[in-house]
Amino acid sequence: MIRPRHSGVVLLYYQDISFPMLAKKYRLKHKRDVKTVFDEGRGISGTFFFIKYWRIDESQYPKRGYKVDDLRFAVVVGKKVSKLAVRRNRLKRRMRYVIHEALPGLKPGYHLVISAKPAALEAPYENLSVELSRLLRNVCL
Prior knowledge:
With 141 residues, the chain is of the alpha+beta class. The chain has helices at residues 31-40, 85-102, 125-139, and strands at 2-4, 10-12, 42-45, 49-55, 71-76, 110-116.
C-alpha cells in the first residue's frame, strides 16, 4: 500500500499476509516437552532450519499422557537470528504456515522443535517453504 506524505515523499507500507494459527493440539506447550526433545531426540539440518525430533514412546513417560498418534511442534527463532522481535515473529508466522500446509502429509508419532538459522531471515518465502517441507517429510515419513 502506498501513502503519500505532505512533503511529496512516498512511503511503502507492507502488510504481512494473515496466517492461520497452528491448532493447540499440534503445539508443544510445556518447557519439559521441549527439553525432552532436545535431550533424547535426533536432529536434521538444512540451509535455513534445524529440526530436533523425538519419536513418541508412551511407556517412557506414562504420566505425561503422550500418545503415539500425536504430532506436536515448537517453533524457535532466537536472538542470534535477529535482535528485532518484529522480524523474529514474522519468521515464526511463516514457519507455522508451512507446517500448517504440510500437516496432512505428515505421519503422527513425533514431537518436533524447529529452529531457524540466521540465513532464514533474508530468504524468500518460497525457499523457506520448500526446505521446511522437505525436512518435515524426511522426519515424518
